[in-house]
Amino acid sequence: MKFGILQFPGSNCDQDCFYAIRNVLKEEVVYLWHKEADLQEADVVVVPGGFSYGDYLRCGAIARFSPVMGEVKKFAASGGLVLGICNGFQILTEAGLLPGALLRNRSLKFICREVCLRVEHPLTPFTLHYHKGEVIRIPIAHGEGNYFAEPDVIAELKKNRQIVFKYTDAEGRETPEANPNGAMENIAGICNKAGNVLGMMPHPERASESILGSADGLKMFQSVVYWLKINRAGQTPSAPVRSAEINLAAV
Amino acid sequence: MKARIIVTPKKTVLDPQGKAVEQAIHHLGMECVKNTRIGKFIEMDIEGENLDLTRKKLDQVCKDLLSNPVIEDYRLELEK
């Protein structure tokens, strides 16, 4: 499988993602420069963390107008897998590929530490290798990760099972103390309605092998590879989540 | 032409920065200050004469780039 990692001026987690995919996951991976409107036939697009365009104006606001983003939008619309991490999540919301927005952390501080996440929805292409309710440890590193959406959007997210990860304590309890940034409903990651675009503030690539403190994030990349394999084995590429669910039932 | 754009967080959005600054204002003795909201002020010079057309185009730029309609409101002032 071929992963493509977007590079904007100011991206700084691109190399971490590259390492996790090439050296740990052992899959093919290429960088995709923001000025090239070419995804180089990647099977998965990763929008990495960092401070694209210096976070000027708003995080992700300028990156969304990069030439490569037009291709990412087309790719996502055709069912292609897009994973936005941290600043990548911010870019995807600014680009309208995911609902809501990321505000300044409630504490106004940049927070860099490991957090516990509860897997809310294991039937997305990104979470197939997790169990529902499983608590995983993945680091966060952001100043603007406070997820916000209007109440009707939150209701939609719940109804369509688009909330994929929530901040919890180690026992999986969704407490205010376990919420590092003030995100609504303790939301750490969401997907689009079709399930092929996922955005999350925590960094799975920084939890890709035990020497880093946690290998819980590796399963995300493994899930993507697994999903692509079963999807290629004769399934329709549209409505990814649904077909993933059907496939899982058959597996 | 000169344009001034004021971007503020929507009323429904919590503004922790505004809150922190308001507290500091209270410490300075002005406890009458309420509802402090912190936004952005953008000003620019624009070449051309067509006020209406410029306003229309700039309004779109405000929606697409200068503000995020999910979390912010904006006010556009344009003059010759």
Which features characterize this protein?
heterodimer; A: 251 residues; alpha/beta; Rossmann fold; two-stranded antiparallel ribbon; 11 strands; 26% helix; disordered C terminus; B: 80 residues; alpha+beta; Mth169, Chain: A; three-stranded antiparallel β-sheet; 2 helices; 3 strands; 35% helix; elongated
Descriptive overview:
The complex is a heterodimer of chains A (251) and B (80). With 251 residues, chain A is of the alpha/beta class. Chain A has one domain: Class I glutamine amidotransferase (GATase) domain (Rossmann fold), CATH 3.40.50.880. Chain A has six helices and eleven strands. Chain A has a nine-stranded mixed sheet with strand order 2-1-3-4-11-10-9-6-7, with helices on both faces. A two-stranded antiparallel sheet of chain A has the order 5-8. In chain A, strand 1, helix 1 (14-25) and strand 2 (28-33) form a beta-alpha-beta unit. Chain A is globular, with a radius of gyration of 16 Å. Chain A starts with a strand and ends with a helix. Residues 236-251 of chain A have low confidence and may be disordered. Chain B has 80 residues and is of the alpha+beta class. Chain B has a single domain (2-79), classed as Phosphoribosylformylglycinamidine synthase subunit PurS (Mth169, Chain: A). Helix content of chain B is 35%, strand content 28%. Chain B is built from two helices and three strands. A three-stranded antiparallel sheet of chain B has the order 2-1-3, with helices on one face. The longest helix of chain B is centred in the last third of the chain and has 16 residues, at 51-66. Chain B starts with a strand and ends with a strand. The mean pLDDT of chain B is 96. The chains are: A alpha/beta (251), B alpha+beta (80). The interface between A and B is medium-sized, with 20 and 12 residues.
